[in-house]
Amino acid sequence: MAGDDLIELKFRLFDGTDIGPNKYDPSTTVASLKEAILARWPQEIAPKTINDVKLINAGKILENTWTITESRVPVCELPGGVITMHVVVRPPMLDKNNERPLAKDPKTNRCACTIL
């Protein structure tokens, strides 16, 4: 495969930092991209699984089974340019009975206000 066939991508995290740019084969799946992102994610705030991460390209949320070729929007791209995909972390799941975030230790998420 020629190096010209590779697609250059970078991933913008929610805090404004970037992962990449790196070159990927057009047949690479979105799930594989997410695994690569998790491997390079800053450790103090890393999501646990690829299902906790969403990739967005040109306003479209990309499905894990799609390839890079299927998820590209050629109108928005410049030839030879770097494609920036935005990375969003899914918020924690809510407890459906109490409408509060699920927590392993309920004492860690306590907050108290005192009005004098």
UniProtKB/TrEMBL annotation:
Pfam families noted in UniProt = Rad60-SLD_2 (PF13881)
Q: Which compartment or compartments is the protein found in? A: Cell membrane
Q: Which GO terms describe its cellular component?
A: plasma membrane
Task: Supply the CDD domains for this chain.
Answer: Ubl_MUBs_plant
The record places domain Ubiquitin-like at 7-73
Signal peptide positions on this chain: none
The keyword Cell membrane belongs to this UniProt entry's keyword annotation: yes
Chief subcellular location equals membrane
What does the record say about its membrane topology?
Lipid-anchor
Keyword terms, alphabetized: Cell membrane, Lipoprotein, Membrane, Methylation, Prenylation
- Function recorded in the entry: May serve as docking site to facilitate the association of other proteins to the plasma membrane.
Q: What is this protein called?
A: Membrane-anchored ubiquitin-fold protein
- Organism annotation: Musa acuminata subsp. malaccensis
